[in-house]
Amino acid sequence: MKKYLGWLITHSLFIAMLISILWDPHKLTWQFKYSAYVAVGFLCLILSLNPLKLIFPRWVLIHRLNRYRQEIGVSVFSYALIHVLCVVIGSGSLASWLSLAQYPPFVSVMLVSMPIFFILAVTSTQFSKMKLGFKNWKRLHRLVYVAEAGVIFHLWMVGQSTLVTVLFLPLVVVQLLRWGIHAKSNSAIH
Ligand code: HEM
Question: Which pairs with CB-CB distance under 8 Å and at least 24 residues apart come from 88-95?
Fold first, then answer.
């Protein structure tokens, strides 16, 4: 049971949202919005874990949350999928949903972020880590930064500039700090 606790906590709202969509596919306002915000929250959480671990090495909560990296990472895809599912249902057909890709606010998430989140979710397992080798796996999972850029662009274009400023600006600052610390320790070694 303990093994599945992380999945239960991160995905119970996902299941509730999915059931409510199947129950009444004509009223999707809250699922559309909240799934998007939860996906953004999990994305910021997963992206902040490594920088915060390095900047505050004694922070126990970060180390505890780090044990649930896979569950948190997959949650980004799961909740984004609910958000996209609502858009597909709202569009009326798959074809009209696909035609959204021609509009700037959606192109980055449809062609870049969602495919990347899918690949990262599918390859998040220990089995994939073993099959790909840790170095290649890590290289592949660095694509998350490309997906992050796609989400930031999407949010900015749909008028969520405050969300970008409040959540992603501090995140980019801690990410740059992390890279700075890494570069400093690498140059000290060589
Ligand atoms: C195939 C990919 C996606 C499509 C087609 C899509 C579509 C949309 C649409 C139509 C809106 C409403 C725009 C408006 O109100 O003018 C929206 C808003 C939003 N999207 Fe996406 N989205 C996608 C992926 C994502 C992803 C991956 C995230 C986050 C990880 C995300 C987060 C949001 C947020 C936070 C909002 C604002 C919600 C609100 O308060 O209205 N979207 N999206």
Answer: 89/21, 89/25, 89/28, 90/28, 90/32
Determine the distance separating the centroid of ligand 1 and the alpha carbon of 142, expressed in angstroms.
23
Q: For the segment 109-121, what is each residue's pLDDT rounded down to a tens digit?
A: 999 999 999 999 9
Q: How far is the CA of 46 from the centre of ligand 1 (A)?
A: 19
Global pTM? Answer: 0.94
Instruction: For ligand 1, say whether the CB of 11 is within 6 Å of any of its atoms.
Output: no
CA of residue 179 to ligand 1 center, whole Å: 29
Q: What is the pLDDT of residues 118-140, one digit of tens each?
A: 999 999 999 999 999 999 999 99
